[in-house]
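User: Could you check the structure of this?
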Amino acid sequence: MDLYQHFRPEEQPFIDQVLDWKDQVERNYIPVVSDFLDPREQLIFKSIIGQDENLQLSFNGGYEYAERKRAFLAPFYETVDFDDFNISILQGTYASKFVSLSHRDLLGTIMSLGLHRKKLGDLVVKEGQFQIICDQDLALYLKMNLEKIKNTRITLKEVDEANVLKPIHHWQDQEGTVSSTRLDVVLKEIYQISRQKAQTFIEKEAVKVNHRVVNNPSFQLESGDLISLKSYGRSKVVDLLGETRKNKVRIKTAKLK
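Assistant: Sure, the predicted structure tokens are below.
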């Protein structure tokens, strides 16, 4: 199918899933709710559904600027509200005076319970409190089984979307030109490091793209990709803006400050 040529080979199973959801909605006239999707998956979903006037596609991750969101695909005449996304927001508190809690600590503890990342949305940690945005079916399990984080006892309660903790993210945009969209080349541009150093980081599995370790320097980045470089922070490819007259690629990126 010509559709596949516009995406990465490893993205084909997700494309097939989206096409299956589309077929279900068109055939049965029943809405479909996805798991939590990263920004790249959201972009793929939008690209496939396109401007189909018979369908409507909405995303929600608990708050407007959530990174991980669920998709709601429905016939064009359906009304959509927050409850349709089957999202729960769990809130917990901890003694910040005695323990330091990071996003990594929270995610690691949750994943140690044997859960799938796709059932979890954003995790928000602020001074003395945190929130877990998750699938509704997972909420009761977490309330019963997530009792400690870093040897500190915690209690979870459910809150509504009006009380979601919104993280303060400061993304610094920049535009530039690169010789290609290879991972090592783009890392060099974003983090202002040598290409050789970028390749070393990649080979040592210190780089993630869309939350997955990538150890191939020639990996081709696309719009919507999230990048994490250990000790250097997070960044993202906002858009690919076409080629220059000298066959360079104009790229818009953003780095988390």
